[in-house]
Amino acid sequence: MSAEERYPTAESTEDFARNLAQVSARMDAAAARAGRSGDRVRLLPVSKTVPAERIRLAAAAGCTRLGENKVQEADRKHSELADLPLEWAIIGHLQRNKAREVAGFAAEFHALDSLRLAEALQRRLVAAERTLDVYVQVNTSGEASKYGLAPEELADFLRELPAFDRLRVRGLMTLAVLSADAERVRGCFRLLRELRDRTRQEEPDLLGPGELSMGMSGDFETAIEEGADVVRVGQAIFGARATSDAHYWPAEG
Ligand SMILES: *Cc1c(COP(=O)(O)O)cnc(C)c1O
Fold first, then answer.
1. pLDDT digits (tens, 9 = 90+) for 93-139
2. Measuring CA to CA, how many Å separate 32 from each of 26, 27, 230, 231?
3. If you measure from the C-alpha of residue 233 to the centroid of ligand 1, how many angstroms do you get, rounded to a whole number?
4. Taking the mean position of all CA atoms in its chain, how far away is CA 160?
5. Domain of residue 209, CATH code
6. Which of 51, 75, 185, 192 is most buried, with most CB under 10 Å away?
7. How many CB atoms within 10 Å of residue 133?
8. CB neighbours of 37 closer than 8 A, spacing ≥ 6?
9. pTM recorded for the entire structure
10. Contact yes or no for 229/2 (Cβ under 8 A)
11. Which positions does the record annotate as the modified residue N6-(pyridoxal phosphate)lysine (predicted)?
């Protein structure tokens, strides 16, 4: 099945309501398989590449906080949709020179992976008189193409974060390997959970609530089975994206 068949484009509020209900039902079933309660898992709809007019339909169907991976695109939509009570999450790699924009409007940031970026965000958040919820990104697949800290760098990194009091640490984030091998995908999620559990045991103050942001359209059920607290789902809600953004997900070599 192609992505277009699997993820038809949502073009009306009814389409969005149906897709959201289907994703929620799948989330609940995955949570139940793991003996967890589905209402404890937050769905973060990812609206990257989706024009503002279609985001309005999604908002009418109940989407209030949206994930975007490019700051300029997010900032533009934030302005275009300023009449709606929407909140924005930046979920992708961030360059330091974009810290000011993020500090100005974002509610959460899922890809913190360097102290220099933490410093830049802190400075801009002080100026903006704001705080930002952050998830620390870990590279659990070991792929050179993925951002994030190596697992063995995590503890030292977390020990530095209390110095940045405008950043409110919510937990950890990862992207699983893009692979048809379900066990390799699961292994990435499991590693993130193990890192969280170990940190909680050894240094419980470093991780805030210790949430796990993991899982997207193709793998959110596995992520929930492995303990995801936030799943970032785009295509299963909005419809397939053009393949031109395949560069976000380099094919495995
Ligand atoms: C695009 C993206 C997602 C969502 O991917 P879908 O396949 O649309 O569900 C999740 N996380 C990150 C970091 C992304 O960039």
1. 999 999 999 999 999 999 999 999 999 999 999 999 999 999 999 99
2. 10, 9, 16, 16
3. 6
4. 22
5. 3.20.20.10
6. 192
7. 18
8. 31
9. 0.95
10. no
11. 48
Q: In one letter, which amino acid is 39?
A: D
Q: Is the C-beta atom of 174 inside 6 A of ligand 1?
A: no
Long-range pairs for 55-59: beta carbons < 8 A, 24 or more residues apart:
55/81, 55/86, 56/81, 56/84, 57/10, 57/11, 57/12, 57/13, 57/15, 57/16, 58/10, 58/16, 58/237, 58/238, 59/84, 59/86
108 within a domain of the structure (yes/no): yes
- Domain containing 183 equals 3-240
pLDDT digits over 15-44, tens only? Answer: 999 999 999 999 999 999 999 999 999 999
Q: Which residue shows structure tokens 């596995």?
A: 222
Neighbouring-strand partners of residue 135: 171
Task: Say if 251 falls within a structural domain.
Answer: no
Asked if residue 223 has its Cβ within 6 Å of ligand 1, the reply is no
DSSP 8-state class, residue 55: H
Task: Tell which phi-psi region holds residue 118, choosing left (phi > 0), alpha (psi between -120 and 50) or beta.
Answer: alpha
Judge whether 247 lies within some domain: no
Closest CA to 19 of 35, 8, 30: 8
